[in-house]
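We store chain and fold; example below:
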Amino acid sequence: MFGRGFKLSLGIFFTIFILFLYGPTLSILVLSFQGPNGGLTFPMRGFSTFWFESLFDGVGVIDIWGAFGRSIRLGLVVMVLTVVLSLMAGMAFRKRFPLSSFLFYATISSLIVPSIVISLGVALEFRIIDDAVKAIGGDMNIQWVIDDFRTTMGLFSSGLGAQLTWTLPFGLLIMFAVFNRFDPSYEEAARDLGAGPWQTFREAVLPIIAPSLIGVALFGFTLSYDELARSSQAIGGLNTLPLELRGLTTTVTDPTIYALGTLTTAVSFAAISIFLILFTLLRRRTAKAPRPESAAS
């Protein structure tokens, strides 16, 4: 259908695209293994794990490992909430209800709104809450509010909310696609066998959609772990790892930052690998599940 020259040109184009996509990551990976005299650019000077050892010794006054732990914890919480809320919304949207279209478009619209605008909006909302708490505390003479209260902004309040505006739309779109293709005969067969609503969901629906939930979980964790713009104004006083990395780009002038980039990339690929293994195992298990006809008989 297509000539040999066209296929060759297309192959060259995608090869260049892959190099453009992964070239920077590979360059950082290579440069992070330089010797003690290494710099931020090629040519590479020696080969060692010196900069990884330097990273583990600490990077100035920045708490890298604290930020790393905060990113992991926040990513796990975002992942769980994204899976649960996306699943609940997917089940709810299987039937029409008042304002369902409005809720859908209102949720998806956060994908097209500039991230920094959402970050500023979330921060403004929590500042309004702070002012209200301080005003109420002052009027009612609540001593702990007067003496100790600073802000409601934090990692698991404003930061969590800002990141959910990014992860939830992806989870919802996945679950809508899954339930759009879901065969209701599985549920009918379970009900014919005497299963109640919860048992039908647990034993007929959940095993089938479990691989898709793994995909939602992967989106939730990785998008949270790498998120920068929506967290920049709304995270509070404690930074996540991407925010610390942004700060390091202006203060660190040696390959330590490359070592940190290599480490964080390895964590991302490790998470993706774990989710892919779980996805494959669940898909195989789902493929072996009996058809509704055989279950009903």
